[in-house]
């Protein structure tokens, strides 16, 4: 697979987001999920994304799953994980970006992953009451100790990125980015490019909206967290699906699937952008990976540009998680 650069890291053009294998999208099977991870690696995917918060009812499950699945290919991969969202073990949910927690969380993640070093360690969410300089200073200590190779931030403002980068080089910012969610283009993308920071795009398929697979709320299981997402509400879903019709039409003419088209569009936005679509099925994985070979011409890009992200109905996240972003 084509390679791309995130700061000082070289990774595959498409990575694999593993969150849905442990939380958020209904029941999952560990053996099936592990087979998806291993198949992705066989196909040339080198960026595997997890976090200590991914798991229900107990956080950490996803790191353990990833660690087992990649144990025999560890040296070929870039393993990314995150800290900063605390819950489980009877604790109330909270954001914790304190230096003390950065150190403790890293040790716990390494143990769950079964690894001595994390290749890319993100601050998952930032507590605005904690100076970012203090948090990144502690993360830099982890680099110096050999526990972490590169640092990342997730869902932060351009100002926070600048302040963090002044303390220690930031390799990547992970942020939601898709045809339907493009706020990153307002300021953060330019700041990343100015500083030489890569963009890791999560939810590049709009949490499934852009695949065409979701046609109504009835397609979602009762424990699928999208039922609480404003864009999937009874109020907004039908209008959003009408916007997907443009993607469907262009994809049909191109001879590809809507998911492949949406990923190819994102890949075309710049060589410093690495989408990490998630899936729990090998068939969907193969579909997604084929997008890396797809090239869109100017007319196709122009038609997709006609989709106005401001016409998308509903916030991208429910109120509480949305309030934890952009600090």
From TrEMBL:
GO cellular component: cytoplasm
Pfam families per record: Aldo_ket_red
Keywords, sorted A to Z: Oxidoreductase
NADP-dependent oxidoreductase domain location: 14-308
An MF annotation (GO) of this entry: oxidoreductase activity
Protein's UniProt name: Aldo/keto reductase
Organism: Stackebrandtia nassauensis (strain DSM 44728 / CIP 108903 / NRRL B-16338 / NBRC 102104 / LLR-40K-21)
Lineage: Bacteria, Bacillati, Actinomycetota, Actinomycetes, Glycomycetales
């Amino acid at each position: 697979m084509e390679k791309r650069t995130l700061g000082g890291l070289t990774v595959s053009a498409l990575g694999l987001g593993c969150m849905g294998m442990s939380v958020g999208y209904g029941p999952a099977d560990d053996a099936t999920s592990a087979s998806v991870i291993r198949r992705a690696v066989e196909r040339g995917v080198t960026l595997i994304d997890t976090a200590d918060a991914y798991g229900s009812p107990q956080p950490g499950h996803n790191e353990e799953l990833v660690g087992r699945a990649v144990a025999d290919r560890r040296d070929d991969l870039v393993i990314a994980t995150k800290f900063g969202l605390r819950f489980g073990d009877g604790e109330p949910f909270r954001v914790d970006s304190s230096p003390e927690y950065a150190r403790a969380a890293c040790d716990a993640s390494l143990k769950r992953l079964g690894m001595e070093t994390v290749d890319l360690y993100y601050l998952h969410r930032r507590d605005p009451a904690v100076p970012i300089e203090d948090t990144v200073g502690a993360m830099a200590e982890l680099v110096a100790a050999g526990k972490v190779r590169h640092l990342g931030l997730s869902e932060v403002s351009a100002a926070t990125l600048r302040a963090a980068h002044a303390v220690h080089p930031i390799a990547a910012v992970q942020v939601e980015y898709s045809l339907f969610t493009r706020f990153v283009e307002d300021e953060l993308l330019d700041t990343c490019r100015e500083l030489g920071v890569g963009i890791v795009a999560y939810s590049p398929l709009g949490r499934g909206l852009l695949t065409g697979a979701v046609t109504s709320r009835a397609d979602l299981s009762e424990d699928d967290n999208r039922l609480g997402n404003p864009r999937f509400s009874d109020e907004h879903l039908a209008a959003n699906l009408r916007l997907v019709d443009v993607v469907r039409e262009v994809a049909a003419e191109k001879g590809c699937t809507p998911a492949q088209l949406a990923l190819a569009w994102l890949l075309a936005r710049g060589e410093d952008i690495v989408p990490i679509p998630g899936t729990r099925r090998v068939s969907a994985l193969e579909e997604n990976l084929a997008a890396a070979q797809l090239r869109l011409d100017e007319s196709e890009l122009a038609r997709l540009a006609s989709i106005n992200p401001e016409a998308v109905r509903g916030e991208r996240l429910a109120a509480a998680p949305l309030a934890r972003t952009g600090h």
